[in-house]
Amino acid sequence: MNKLVLVSLLVLTLATGVFAQGKGHGGGVGGGRGSGSSGGPPPGVGVDRGIGNASSRSGGRSDDGLSNASTRSNGRSDNGLERARQASSNLRHADDDLRDHPNLPRALHTNANDLRAGYQAALATNPDLTFGNYVAATRLGQNLNRRFPNVTRDAILSGLASGRSLGQTLQDLGLTNDESKDARKQAEREIKEARKNN
Predict the structure, then answer these.
(1) Residue burial 90-124, b: 16+ Cβ < 10 Å; e: rest
(2) Euclidean distance between CA atoms 122 and 129, whole angstroms
(3) Cα 193 to Cα 41, 48, 97, distances in angstroms
(4) pLDDT per residue over 62-95, tens digit each?
(5) Which one, of 132, 106, 101, lies nearest residue 119 by Cα?
(6) How far apart are CA 195 and CA 198, in angstroms?
(7) What angle do CA 147, 148, 152 make, to 5 degrees?
(8) C-alpha–C-alpha distance, residues 43 and 40, integer Å
């Protein structure tokens, strides 16, 4: 009976210690208000978060799982991870660009949150899409849509996702070679001007 009471007391003490630890506020740097963080995940994490230490913590089972997923999907799971990494990297570059050029969204008649959200949605379809091409597609759609109703940002993004360049996409949408060049030059000038005015 004494052993049972002693074991119960030990379990209760350990559980209380763990609970208290979980309830603590901690002194580490977080992403909360006033922490100096600009928001988002901490640096160096993303789709690979936890992969580095998963093997040791699972006794190698996670390596088997990744290998099995790759084999059973004929490499598609590897491609999916690589696409997610590329999209995550591109989104980080976009965040840097938006921070460095706060007037860019205004020049596109939007705000930074909506521009970022639109780009993030576009990356789901085309993880290789650069933020520069997304901004150019946005500006081109705004500049050309009145004269060429089928030229929209979404139509341009669709062309880019299929492997066509901006120039080829504009021609696919009905512009001549010269019209496409002129439109791209005008958009480049406007975007460059917006980036300068910080």
Answers:
(1) bbeebbebbeebeebbebbebebeebbebbeebbe
(2) 8
(3) 31, 37, 14
(4) 555 555 555 565 655 567 778 888 888 888 988 8
(5) 132
(6) 7
(7) 120
(8) 9
> Mind spelling out the 3-state secondary structure of 43-100?
CCCCCCCCHHHHHHHCCCHHHHHHHHHHHHCCCHHHHHHHHHHHHHHHHHHHHHHHHH
Q: What is the pTM of this model?
A: 0.59
- The two three-digit tokens of residue 114, written as one number: 């909506």
CA pair distance 52, 187, nearest whole angstrom: 43
- 73 Cβ partners below 8 Å, 6+ apart? none
> Which amino acid is it at 122?
A
Tokens of 108: 């596109």
